[in-house]
Amino acid sequence: MSAIPALTEGRQRALPALFGKASRLLATIAVTIFGLLVVTFLIGRVVPVDPVLAVVGDRASQSTYDKAFVELGLDRPLYVQFGLYVEKAVTGDFGESLLTKKPIIDDIARAFPATLELATVAILIGTLLGIPVGVWAAVRQGKLVDQVVRIIGLLGYSAPIFWLGLLGLLVFYAKWGIVAGPGRIDISYEYAFTPTTGLFLLDTAMQGQWAAFRNVVSHIALPAALLGYFSMAYIARMTRSFMLNELAQEYVVTARVKGVAEWRIIWVHALRNAAVPLVTVITLSYASLLEGSVLTETVFAWPGLGQYLTNSLQNADMNAVLGGTLLIGIIFVGLNLLSDFLYTVLDPRVRRRS
Question: Which residues form the ABC transmembrane type-1 domain (predicted)?
Answer without folding.
Answer: 112-339
